[in-house]
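Before relying on records like the one below, remember that each one covers exactly one chain. Contacts with other chains, cofactors or solvent are not represented anywhere in the record.
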Amino acid sequence: MRKEEIFEQIKGKVIVSCQAVPGEPLYVEEKSIMYLMARAAKRAGSPAIRTSSIRDVVAIKEETGLPVIGLVKVQYEGFESYITPTMKEVDDLVAAGSDIIALDCTNQKRGDGKSISEFITEVRTKYPDAILMADISTYEEGINAWKLGMDLVGTTMSGYTSYSPKLPGPDYELVKRLAASVDIPVIGEGRVHSPEQAVEMLDAGAFAVVVGGAITRPLEIAARFIKAVENR
């Protein structure tokens, strides 16, 4: 699908994030089962799926036929960023057919000595036609990603860098500020725990909303219920 078609398809909608990494209950070493979560998300009406790992990108595209926002989570020595941090992961996602490639565009330390601006420029030069999504944690990072030619900017990392605000819920203010400043889609993501919060993200100016843990991470969901009952 062309970029414009994907954007039209996701506008004003909930994109479901279907991810499981080693150590999580739904991660199976032998074979991914995330395509089953994606199947449910599609039936519910999600217009696209966000997922991590090459095997999940391939399996979910095959299962659903929906556009996939792909990323690879990997921790390299010397890197604080872990979402598609190097060109190797970008290359792999392109080869796997990821429709949109998400990468960490924060100012966290990079073990290769490059600035995030240098890395984004390299990616855009190598893949001029790729649809790239910037996962950022602050307004300044979002503006920088926009100026460097990213196609979408998501508030994914707000609260997950040492210098961004630690909020119990979504960062509505960041969404609002970015939506008023850039001419690319702003994707509201991060700690969206309820349908009401998803609606509020859109009301704050988000082009679309990504919801993950509240839908596809049963450990988090169960723990939230148990904690609420224990603390009553």
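The longest strand covers residues 100-104.
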